[in-house]
Structures are given as structure tokens and as C-alpha cells.
Amino acid sequence: MTDREEPRPLRADARRNRDRVLAAAQEAFAAEGIGVPLDEIARRAGVGAGTVYRHFPTKEALFEAAIVDRVERMIANARDLATAADPGAAFFVFLDSMVAEGGVKRDLADAVGGHDSPGYLRPVHELNAAISELLTRAQQSGAVRPDIDINDLMRVIKGTFLATRDTGATAEQRKRTFAIVFDGLRPR
Predict the structure, then answer these.
(1) d(C-alpha 163, C-alpha 159), whole Å
(2) Domains of the chain, first to last
(3) Degrees, nearest 5: CA angle 58-102-77
(4) Are the CB atoms for 90 and 133 separated by under 8 Å?
(5) Cα(29)–Cα(105) distance, rounded to whole angstroms?
(6) pTM to 2 decimals?
(7) d(Cα 96, Cα 103) in Å, to the nearest integer?
(8) Per-residue pLDDT, 1
(9) Residue 168 burial by CB count (10 A; 0-12/13-18/19+): exposed, middle or buried?
(10) Cα–Cα distance, 123 to 125 (Å, whole number)
């Protein structure tokens, strides 16, 4: 294949295997971080290790693909909410979805806080832009305090993800912690 040729589309069975590997990797990385062995991901996906390596030549490539896929789904969610009639409610609905997904997932804190991997740069910038639009609309509607920007918001969210995860907070404790953070985002 030359540099100008597009890769051939995957056969249906190969696509299903790739999707199964990616789903198993997302689950494993979310629970255990990047330290999970590729053989364990293959086992969870119900495929051989060769299948994992055929689609993802390194664990880092698989980790990156798992995060990028998760971030792209979050971008789509933020964009869907960007035209909601109530910008404040849309902003907090999005944050709630981030909390539900990211409060217990080890890989999401890396994604929302930014990462130095070149593969993460585009989706993380797109995610920040989509969240920034929600934030700006919520601020303009008076639902969110005007003195914060997207960088402030992302630091607070990442810090709260890490704090609740690293302290072994229960679901109820995570919910209370994020409720306090959300209250702090509202105007005084």
C-alpha cells in the first residue's frame, strides 16, 4: 500500500473483533489503568492475543484508541446539548454525564485534563471546544458564574475525578463531592 492509498475497509468479522477488543480495553483501562496486560484484554474480548496485536500493535496504541473513542462520544453528547433551549440545564446535564462516566474510570481523567500524546490532541481540543460552548452559553444565560473559563473548569473536573477515585470514594460520596463542585459553578 502506498502513502496515498486508503486502508481497505475491515471485513465484518474483523470489524466486530476490533470493536470487541476496543470495548474490552475501555472497560479494563477504566477499571485498572494502562497497567492491564494485553492478554487480559484479549481474554475479556474473547479473542486471541494475535487479534489484539493485528488491530493495535502496542498497548499504547490500544489505550489511545480507547480514550479517543470515549472522548469522541463525549464530544457528540456536548454538541447535541449545545442547542438546548435551557443552556444552564444543558451544561449541568453534560457535567452529570461526565461525572457518571468519569468518576470511576481511570482513563477519563487523563482525557479531560489533557494529555501530551499527539493522538489525544485533536479530540481533547474538540472536547474542550464543545464544553467551552456549553459553558459560554450557560454563563450568558446566568446559570454559571462568569469568572471562570474552560481551563478553570477542566482543572476542577480533573482534580475532582482524581480526588474521588484515588480516595476510594463511594458512589454516594462522589455524587456529594460533585454536587459541591457544581454549586461552586453557579453564580453567588
Answers:
(1) 6
(2) 9-57 (1.10.10.60), 63-185 (1.10.357.10)
(3) 95
(4) no
(5) 8
(6) 0.76
(7) 10
(8) 46
(9) exposed
(10) 5
Structural contact between residues 123 and 130, judged by C-beta atoms closer than 8 angstroms: no
- Work out the pLDDT band at 169, boundaries 50, 70, 90: confident
CA dihedral 41, 42, 44, 47 (to 10 degrees): 160
Cell 452559553 maps to which residue? 137
Residue with cell 450568558: 140
Could you give the CA distance from residue 92 to residue 185 in angstroms, rounded to a whole number?
10
Tens of pLDDT, residue by residue over 114-163, are 555 566 678 888 989 999 999 999 999 999 999 999 999 988 988 888 78
Instruction: Classify residue 166 as exposed, middle or buried by CB count within 10 Å of its CB (0-12, 13-18, 19+).
Output: exposed
Cα–Cα distance measured from residue 69 to residue 55, given in angstroms and rounded to the nearest whole number: 15
Which candidate, 77, 66, 59, places its Cα nearest to that of 20?
A: 66
The cell for 161 is 475525578
Q: How confident is the model at residue 8 (pLDDT cuts 50, 70, 90)?
A: low
The packing angle between helices 171-185 and 87-102, to 10°, is 150
